[in-house]
Amino acid sequence: MSDKRRIGVYVCHCGGNISDYVDVEKVRDAVKDDQDVVISKNVMFACSDATQQEMIEDIEKEKLDGLVVASCSPMLHLQTFKAVAQRANLNQYQYTQVNLREQCSWTHRDNMEKATEKGIKLVRAGIARTRLTEPLVNIRIETKPKTLVIGGGVSGLRAALALADLGLAVFIVEKEYEVGGWTKKWGKMFPNNKIGSETINTLREQIRQHEAITLFTGAELIKKEGSVGDFAVKIKLVNHEIISFDVGAIIVATGFDSYEPFDGEYGYGLNGVVTLPQFKEMVDKSNGSLNLNGSRVKNLAYIYCVGSRQPEDGDLENPNLYCSRYCCSAAVHTASCVADVDPGINQYHLYRDMRTYGKYEVMFEDAGNKKSLFVRFDGEALPEVKESDDSLIVKVNDMLDGGEEIEIGVDLVVLVTGMVPRKNENLTNILKIPIGLDGFYNEIHPKLRPVETVVAGIFIAGSSQGPKTLAESVISSLSAASKSAGLLMKGYVDLEPFIAEVNTDKCIWCGECEKSCPYGAIEKVFCDTKEVATVISALCKGGGVCIPDCPEDAIELKGYSDNQIKSMIDALMKEVV
Amino acid sequence: MTEVNAARDTKPETVQMTINGNSIETEKGKTVLEAARENDIEIPTLCYHPGLESIGACRLCLVEVAKSSRPGRKRLVTSCLFPVENGLIVDTQSNVVRQHRKIVLKLLIARVPDSDVIRRLADEYGVQESRYVEREDADKCIMCGTCVRVCNAMGANALVTLSHGLDKYVDVPNKNACIGCLACALNCPTNAIPFEETDGKRRIWGKEFDLVRCWASGEPIGTLEQIWHFAKRSDIPIESFLKSDKVREREDAAESVGVKL
Amino acid sequence: MAKQLIYTPDRCVDCKNCEIACSFIHTKDITKPAMSRVRAFTYGDIVKSVTVCKQCEDALCQKVCPTGALVRNPETGAIDRTDKCILCKMCTLACPYGNIHLDPIYDEIVKCDLCGGDPACAMFCPTRALVWADEPVPDIKQDAQIEHVFNEEEARYSANRCLDCADCSECGECIKACPADAIHFDMQPEELEIEANSVIVSTGFKLFDAHLKTTYGFGKYPNVVTAMQMDRLVSPTKPFNRTLRPSDGKAPDNIAFVLCTGSRDCTIGNPLCSRVCCMYSIKQAQLIMGSLPLADITIYYIDIRAFGKGYEEFYQQSEEMGVYFVKGRVAKIEPAEDGNLSVFYEDIEGGSGQQQMEHDLVVLSVGLLPNMDALHLFNNGDRLKSDAYSYVEEINEDTDPTRTSINGVFAAGTTSAARDIPDSILHAGAAAVQAAGYIHQLKASR
What we know:
The complex is a heterotrimer of chains A (577), B (261) and C (446).
Chain A: E1 7-12, H1 24-31, E2 37-43, H2 49-62, E3 66-71, H3 74-87, E4 95-99, H4 101-105, H5 112-131, E5 139-142, E6 146-150, H6 154-165, E7 169-174, E8 188-189, E9 194-195, H7 196-208, E10 213-217, E11 220-227, E12 230-236, E13 242-247, E14 249-252, E15 256-258, E16 273-275, H8 276-285, E17 291-292, E18 295-296, E19 299-306, H9 327-341, E20 346-351, H10 361-369, E21 372-376, E22 384-388, E23 391-398, E24 404-410, E25 412-417, E26 419-421, H11 425-431, E27 458-460, H12 470-488, E28 492-495, E29 500-502, H13 512-516, E30 522-527, E31 530-535, H14 546-549, E32 555-557, H15 562-573
Parallel strand pairs in A: 1-2, 1-3, 3-4, 6-7, 6-14, 7-10, 14-27, 16-25, 19-20, 19-25, 20-21
Antiparallel strand pairs in A: 5-28, 8-9, 11-12, 12-13, 15-26, 17-18, 22-23, 23-24, 29-32, 30-31
Helix pairs in contact in A: 1-5, 2-3, 5-15, 6-7, 6-12, 9-10
Chain B: H1 6-9, E1 14-19, E2 22-27, H2 32-38, E3 62-67, E4 75-78, E5 88-91, H3 95-111, H4 116-124, H5 146-154, E6 160-162, E7 169-171, H6 183-187, E8 195-198, E9 201-204, E10 207-213, E11 220-223, H7 224-234, H8 245-256
Parallel strand pairs in B: 1-5
Antiparallel strand pairs in B: 1-2, 3-4, 3-5, 6-7, 8-9, 9-10, 10-11
Helix pairs in contact in B: 3-4
Chain C: E1 4-7, H1 17-26, E2 39-43, E3 47-51, H2 60-64, E4 70-72, E5 79-81, H3 90-94, E6 101-103, E7 108-110, H4 120-124, E8 130-133, H5 152-160, H6 173-177, E9 199-201, E10 205-207, E11 224-226, H7 227-234, E12 254-261, H8 277-291, E13 296-301, H9 311-320, E14 324-327, E15 330-335, E16 341-347, E17 353-359, E18 361-366, E19 368-370, E20 409-411, H10 421-444
Parallel strand pairs in C: 9-20, 11-18, 12-13, 12-18, 13-14
Antiparallel strand pairs in C: 1-8, 2-3, 4-5, 6-7, 10-19, 15-16, 16-17
C-alpha cells in the first residue's frame, strides 16, 4: 500500500457552465476531509492564468504530490493542467482530470441535487485514482531523418521535393517504370493550361538535382516493421532484388484509378462512347480537328457523374455514393479545349449539378461562351445512349426545360467518369491503415488532422485520400510533408507512457498475451531462468487487450492499473451523505 | 456661405501693354500667352497646359516682343514663359513670327509624319508638306514633356526623359513607380502613348495592371496602384475608393432622405 | 447673405426635370442626362431623393487636386473645374458624395458649377427640392395638416426609454463583473517590430455585405437575415434559447435559404463561386430541423456544390430528412403580410416560369470576398500582387502553391481564394512546409 499522499483538489465553476447545475461548493466540502486530501478549493475558471498560477503556488507551498482538477473534458485541458504540474515540478502523470462538465453538469441540467451527488462521486473516483498514481516518464524514441514516399505521381514527387528542401532524405517508391502517374499522360490541364507532361518533367528534373532523394521505379513495398520514427521497410525491385532501409515516416501517395463503366453503362462498349481520360487523350493528340475512326466529329455529348453519386438503393452492388470533385471542372475545361481545336463542334453537356466551385466557375462561363450547351438531368431519370445507323442518339429529360424529353444525335459520347480508390490491398495490409466508407484512405479527422492516419508516422496525401484536382493533390502532399517534417526534424518523438508492463515473478509464459496483441508488441524472452513475456515499448499502444487474457494477472497497464480501477469503482459506489 | 477669394483682397498690380496694336490691361505675374488668351488672341501651342509649369519645349508659341522704350529692337520669345510688363509691345502675326511657325511645323511633320493632330495644326497655319527628312520608324512623340510634367504633378514621378539630342526619348525606367492612372496618355497632345484595357487588365508602359472594380456596379474604377497612391496622398481610407462615384452619389441621396440601401 | 443652391431631398418627386435642364445647359450636343451634374433617384419604388455638389467649404476634391484645377468662383460660390485639370481623376474618387464625375465621351471632369450663378435645375424644379435662394424656402404644400401621433407626454415617455446603448459609457461595471480580471480600459495599442526570414499571410476573407444585393431587401425587411445571423439563431447559446424570427419573435415554420447571394453574380462584381455556402446552408437546415422539427425548409439554388469528402452523402441525407431543394435563382424578395416575405424565383424544373412563394423567414447565404487589406501589407519595395479577383496571387498554384509574388512570403487559407475549412487547413500545411523549406534553403546557402 502506498504512503500517505498529499493531493490538491480544485473544483471549477467554469463560469456557470458547471456551477449553474452542480453545487460546486458542496462538492468541495464533501471531499475536503477525505483521506490524503490536503487542499480542496473552488475556482471560477481553472484554466485561467491566475488560477494556474495559484495551483503552482499551492503545489510548491503544500508540497502536493497529486493533483485533481474537476472541470471540463480532458479533450480540452488535459495538456494545460499537465503543463501546470510540470511547471510546479510535479510529475505530469500524477494528475487526474475529472470531467464535471460534459459528463455531469451539461447532461443533468434538470436536477441539481442528483447532479451534485454524481459530481461528488466522480471527484472521489478521481482522488482514488490519484492516490495510486506513480511518476511516469514519456518514452522517447529517436527518429530517423528519412522518409519513404510511396507513389511517384505528382503528389509523391512534390512531397519528396518539399522534404528534401528541409534537409531530410527521401526514398520514392513507384510501382510503374516511369514516374508521373496520370499527370504525365495529359496535355493542357485546368485551370492554367499547364501541360501535364511538362509539369512532371520539371519535377523530375528538380528531383534529379537533389542528392537527398533516391527514386526507385518498378518497385513495391513488401514489408514494414517498427513504429513511428523508426520503421524498417523492405522494397522489391523489378529484378526481384530486395532492398532494406530505415525511415522515420511514411507518406502514402498512391493516387486514384479512373472509374471503368460496366458494359452497356450509358452505351459503354458501343463505338463512339469513351471515358473522359480516353477523350482527353484524343483531344491532346488532335491537330486542327477532332476525328473518330477517320471522320470528323461534329457533335458530341458529355454525360456527367458516371461512376459517382450513384444511388444507394439501386441495382449496383457497391455504389460510389461520393462526388468525384474534379470532373465538372475537367469536363468544361476539356470542352473549351475542344472548341479551340474546332470551333464548329457542337458540344452538349448533360449534367446533374455543375460543380465548378471557386475560381473554376469562370471555366464554366468560358465553355458556355464557346458554344457549349448545358442540359440538366435528374438522378432519378438517367440519360440513355442508343446506336442509330452509324451515329449515336442520346435521350434525356431536360430539367432546365420542365423535364421535356429531348434526343440529341451525336458522333461521340464522353462519359465523364469519376475517381475510384486504387486497388492497393497488398499495401493496405502491409501498412495497416484504415479505409473509409468510400474506399479511399481514411484520415483521422477531415478538419483537424487531414493527412494523418491512426498509425502514427504514416501519412496520406493526394487522391489516395479522396478525389482531388492537381493543385489540391499538391497542396495535400505538401501538408503531409509538413507533418512528416514536423515529426522528424526534432530528432525524437515522445510517446505516452501508458503501456503494459509484465510482472516477471507472476508470469508463467503461456503465450496468451502475445496472441491477443494486435500490434505485435509482446514477445518471449528469458529472464533469469524462465521464459517470460515482455512488452516492446515502442509498439505498445496501451490497448489493454492483453490484460484480461492473462490467467495469472501478471500484466498491468501503467496509469490504469487494476488497483486504480478497482478503487475508482469503490469510490463511485460509496454513498454520498 | 460664399468664400471670398483671398487673393482678391490684395489687388494685384495691373499692367498695360499692346498685342497686335490693341491696348490690353492685364495683371502682373501673368505670361504673354495668358494675356493673349484672356483677350481671345490666338497663339498656337502644343506643350502648354494651364495646370502645369510651362517649359517652352515645342517653340510653337513664339511671338515678337519689344519694349516701348525701344520699339525697334524686336526679338522672338516663347510667349508661354515671357512675363508681361508695362509698355510691352507684342506681335503675334508678323512675318517673322509666321515664318518661324511654319519652320517649327515643318520640323514637327518630319518628326511625327503619322500624327493627324500635327498635320491638322500645320494645315491651319498653311503648312502641308515638309522638305525635312522624315524620322525613321517615327512614333508620335514630339518630346513636349507634357507626360513627364503630368506624372510629376500626380506625384508618381515615373516618367523621365532618357538619353540626349536626337536619341532622346521618354520612358518609365522604374516600372514600380507607374501607377497606371493614364494621365500621361490622356494629356499627350499627339496621343503618342499607347495603352489598352482588356480582360480586367490595363497595359501601359510595358506594365500590366489589375483593374479594381466597384463592388456594387462592377465597373472598373482604376488600378490597384492608383488607388493606393491616392489613398496615401489624401489620407482618405482605401475602402472609400472601392465604390464608383455613381454608387456614392446614389448612397448620398439615399442617406439624405433616411433610406438605408 | 449671398444666394446658394439649397436642396431639400424630401421634396423630390424624381421628375428628372433637373437632370434634363442641367445637361441641356452643359453638354456640347443635345441633352444628355447621363452627364447631368445633379441626379435624382427613386428607392424601392417609393422614396425619392436628389443630390448635387454641395460646394463644400473644406472640399476634398480641391484638396486632392494636384494642379489646383478646382477653384472657388468668388461670384457664384461654386467650385469650378478649370482647364488646369490633367484628368488624374483623383477628385472623382475623393468626393465622399460622388458628385464629381468623368465624362467618358469628352474625357473631361464634370461637376456642378451653379450654371455661373443661376442654376438651371433650381429654375425647373417643380417641388422646390432645389432652390436658388439665400435662405430655405417653405414647402409648396404649406398648409398641409401635420398629424400628431403622440402627445407631448407620450412622446417624452417613449423618449425616456432610450438606453443610448450604442456606446460605451466607461462606467466600469464590466471590470467589476469579470472574475478573470480580463478587462483593462487603459490598454493602448503597442507596436512591435519583429525581424523574420519568412512571412505567412493568413488574413482570411470578408463576407459579402448583403445590403449590396438591393433586390433581396436585406436591411429593409427585418425577416431577411444573412446566414451569419442565422448561425447565431441556431447556435447552442442562441438568444431566448429558441430559434425566433426578428420582427415579432414568432418561431418560423417556413424558412427559405437563398444560395449564391453575392456569388456567381456579375451585377455585384463577383463572378466566382464561394465554395462554402451550399454546404453551410445544408448544415444550417439540418440544425434548424433539430430546433424546429415542424418547420419546412426550402433551399433555392443554382447548383448544389457538395464536392468534398462526405459532402454528397450529407446532401443526400438532408434531402431524405425533408429539406426541399428548388432549382431557380431568386430574383427578388418583396414584403408580404405579417412580416412574411414573397420570394420570386424561376421554377426551372417544374417548367412553370416565374413563381412566387411566401416564407416567414429568409436566410441569404452570403458568399466570400477577398480581404483586400492583405494587399497593402507590404508597402516598401516589392508589393503583394493580386490576381484578377483581388485575392493575393499564388504565382504558381499548380505545383508550387502558397508562393506569392514576394520571395519568402506565403499565402495561407482564404487569403488567396475562397476555401472551406478542410481545404484551408491543408493549404496552411502547405504554406508551413514552403516557409520552412525557404528558410532552410536560405540558411544552407549562407
